[in-house]
Amino acid sequence: MTKTVGIFGLGLIGMALADRLLDAGHKVVGFDPDTERGALLKKKGGEAADPATLWDTDILLSAVFSTDQLAAIIAEAPDGVGKVLVTMSTCDPDEVAALESTARAKSITLVEAPISGTSKQVQQGTALLLLAGDPLGLDAFEGIADAISPNSERVGAIGDGNKTKLAINCILGLNRAAVAEGLVFAEALGLDPEVFLQTALRSAARSEVMGVKGPMMVVRDFVPLGRITQSQKDFKLIREMAARNGHGSLPMVACYLELMANAVQVGEGDLDNSAVLLAISRMAKT
Fold first, then answer.
1. pTM of the complete model
2. Is a pLDDT exceeding 80 seen at residue 286?
């Protein structure tokens, strides 16, 4: 059944969500403080609107950058609105769980569906949605979720979606860094990076990350599918969540954050996260 979907945040993920929903025949109304993104949504067949207007839609998706921005969406929502709000960004799991009560006081059902996958994988319909929270709220989201991706998994109570996402992102980020360091090492040995990558993809070291990000690293094509700044934000949250839960030191996470800091310091924060290769190349020469 065709629905009108409101989307807060029209960045890489938000726009990819809009593309999927428009292609499935749904109406999309979106808001982003960057008016150029709203204009792009309109060009694609959607509608750009102010935040208050989005609450008139059938169901709402949050694809904003941070947990604070999600909290602001809920704080500014009208009382008694009676809608389902699906948070699809990587957020602080504990704060999301706390926000559920705040949302409920406004008759908002807050559920989670953080995305495991790049914006390109969202557009292709191959990303994984990590569903968590109120079962009835998730049921209301089901048809929209299917239009976004046939791949989803209910992982538990509110907060568990982002806990799962952070643990997955930990593996993904470290895998990207491992691929990048392997390529830097291969080039230092005088190997042709393209030949090396194709060989590695046939070896036991193969991974989906290598298949997706490896070619970008070889040709230094860092048009963003997921930005360095987003990866840095996620890993800072991973470190914080680990500390909250009695794990004061995650040594590989610490190394990854050092790489992200190096990249951001030289102005590479808006590049694709595969640009971790550039940071590794610089640090390998010092």
1. 0.92
2. no
Distance CA 34, CA 87 (A): 20
Q: Rounded to an integer, what distance in angstroms lies between the CA atom of residue 157 and that of residue 96?
A: 11
Q: How far is CA 242 from CA 37, 161, 167, 233, in A?
A: 35, 16, 10, 14
What would the pLDDT profile of 139-149 be if each residue is shown by its tens digit?
Answer: 999 999 999 99
Euclidean distance between CA atoms 259 and 187, whole angstroms: 19
How far is Cα 223 from Cα 217, in angstroms, rounded to an integer?
A: 11
Question: CA 163, 165, 170 angle in degrees (round to 5)?
Answer: 100
Distance of CA 221 to the CA centre of its chain: 20
Spatial distance between the Cα atoms of 92 and 161, rounded to a whole number of angstroms:
10
Query: Which phi and psi angles does 238 have, rounded to 5°?
Result: -60, -45
DSSP state of 273: G
Q: Which domains does the chain have, with CATH numbers?
A: 4-157 (3.40.50.720), 163-284 (1.10.1040.10)
**Opening angle at CA 59, ends 137 and 167, nearest 5:** 60
230 near 169, Cβ under 8 Å?
Answer: no
Residue 101: half-sphere exposure toward Cβ, Cα within 13 Å: 4
Tell me if 222 sits within 8 A of 74, measured CB to CB: no
Beta bridge partners of 61: 7, 86
Torsion angle (degrees, nearest 10) of CA 243, 236, 181, 194: 140
**Alpha-carbon span 112 to 72, nearest angstrom:** 16
281, 46, 7: which is closest to 144 by C-alpha? Answer: 7
Residue 251 amino acid letter: P
Task: Tell me the percentage of the chain whose pLDDT exceeds 90.
Answer: 95
Listed residue (272, 152, 283) closest to 221, CA to CA: 272
Q: Considering only CA atoms, give the Rg of the chain.
A: 20
